[in-house]
Design brief:
5 helices
């Protein structure tokens, strides 16, 4: 049972934020996974990247400072990428 839960978490975390630059994506995944588990467990279990992302954004003020910092860096990287396109 624990193996199944771990597999789901790893698989779902791989779905998170795939459009962002890789470094920013990895930083968000690492920094925010405890907060995602806490605030977005249902969405994480659904394997829906968009639902997890929406939930994280909705709850960002409740998340750890590290998660907020990583999410802001990712947002800034996305904006820079769009401006460069």
């Amino acid at each position: 049972m624990k193996m199944l839960k771990t597999t789901r978490i790893v698989a779902a975390s791989g779905l998170l934020f795939s459009a962002a630059p890789l470094l920013a994506q990895d930083n968000v995944r690492e920094a925010c996974m405890p907060d995602i588990r806490k605030y977005c467990a249902a969405e994480l279990g659904s394997f829906s990247r968009e639902n997890v992302r929406a939930c994280l954004i909705k709850n960002i003020k409740k998340t750890s400072p590290a998660c907020q910092k990583a999410a802001k860096a990712r947002r800034d990287a996305e904006r820079a990428k769009k401006q460069g396109s």
